[in-house]
Design brief:
The protein has 352 residues and is an alpha/beta fold. The chain has 10 helices and 16 strands. The strands form 3 sheets. An 8-stranded mixed sheet has the order 6-7-8-9-11-13-14-15. The chain has a 6-stranded mixed sheet with strand order 5-4-3-2-1-16, covered by helices on one side. A two-stranded parallel ribbon has the order 10-12.
Length: 352
């Protein structure tokens, strides 16, 4: 029986995602990001189970250098008792970025050093060994999973690379966009979607702009992994795909960019997608994500039909969206962790 399953793990304010695809007797797996360090024991448990079954970890994607994505990835590399190694890694370090919070840059360097010592295959799916749109084939085949790259492009990588090189020359300078920010306000009560859909600013943070984002397709079902990618680049990459399908590109799950930040989800992006399932990974502890404006944009500007919201944490930011009266008013279902806080699975082949 075919399977396409997305598992969001307890990554605190970050992402740690496990995708499994194939047949019951021949499953393949991919990890996207490592979340905070506390996420790694949860991932290790799953990887141990995969190894015990004799299955393979086909790909490990580290989308970018922000701490809420890279901390757990570093823990994985540094674990001398890791259950199994990936067949390939996608990651753009300083070398890859310059070819085209300060702490994140340090961690990015540490990740590159650890990868080099392990000698794991890096970015072998790309013509110049840089994970970017320009050097990716139109479709990348990973054990039958079809991947289409959406981000980053050379321009965004070069912008981060320049900043990264500058930091190396002047260590101690506080890099813009890589430090702790104040929390956002809580969702309004009552929640009125129409009051939350006005256009606002979009993300300009350099690390986020370098984020790897892509579509993964299996058995005709598609998942958009947004990383923390900028919405304008995602929209530009999706436009020709949407045009080929009558204006909206069908996606079965949208893994929200930047944990549901309003700056990374906007009307044009949503209107390019034929998507009714939105997945958001974060406990909101540092930045207060998800923003209600991002969810409102998805509900209001998405296609007709019942929609589904998936949250891997129950928080002050997500709990209001689970109120039955709000869900009924706007025609959606909210899905919260059934057992373990921080963990929720989506069966992408199932019809909602």
């Amino acid at each position: 029986m075919s399977k396409l399953r997305l598992l969001m793990l307890p990554a605190a304010d970050g992402d740690c995602l496990l995708l499994s695809w194939g047949d019951d007797n021949d499953l393949h797996h991919m990890v996207v990001d490592g979340g905070r360090t506390s996420a790694y024991p949860h991932l290790k448990k799953r990887l141990s189970s995969i190894a015990d079954k004799g299955e393979r970890l086909e790909l490990y994607v580290l989308t970018h250098i922000d701490a809420d994505h890279i901390e757990g990835a570093l823990a994985y590399l540094r674990d001398t008792d890791r259950p199994l190694a990936p067949q390939e890694v996608w990651y753009n370090g300083r070398t890859e970025s310059t070819a085209t919070g300060i702490r994140s840059m340090k961690q990015g360097d540490a990740y590159s050093v650890a990868l080099a010592k392990l000698e794991w295959p890096l970015n072998t799916s790309f013509s110049d060994r840089v994970a970017k749109i320009e050097s990716a084939p139109s479709v990348i085949d990973i054990a039958g999973l079809k991947i289409t790259m959406l981000s980053p492009d050379e321009l965004h990588l070069a912008a981060l690379g320049s900043k990264w090189s500058q930091w190396h020359q002047q260590q101690g300078v506080r890099a813009r966009g890589i430090f702790k920010k104040p929390k956002r306000p809580l969702p309004p009560d009552p929640l009125i979607v129409e009051d939350l859909i006005a256009p606002g600013p979009t993300d300009t943070e350099l690390p986020n702009g370098s984020s790897i984002a892509f579509i993964a397709e299996w058995c005709g079902r598609r998942i958009l992994f947004g990383g923390d990618a900028h919405p304008d680049l995602l929209a530009a990459s999706l436009e020709p795909l949407a045009a080929g399908e009558g204006g909206r590109y069908r996606v079965d799950v949208l893994k929200a960019s930047h944990h549901g930040s309003a700056k990374n989800t906007y009307r044009k992006l949503i209107e390019l997608l034929d998507c009714r399932r939105l997945a958001i990974s974060t406990n909101g502890n540092i930045h207060g994500h998800p923003d209600p404006q991002a969810i409102a944009q998805f509900l209001h500007f998405g296609p007709e039909g019942r929609k589904h919201l998936y949250f891997n944490y129950v928080t002050e930011q997500t709990r209001p969206w689970a109120k039955p009266e709000v869900a009924d008013r706007y025609g959606y279902s909210a899905h919260l962790p059934p057992v373990e806080e921080g963990t929720i699975a989506i069966d992408v082949l199932a019809d909602d």
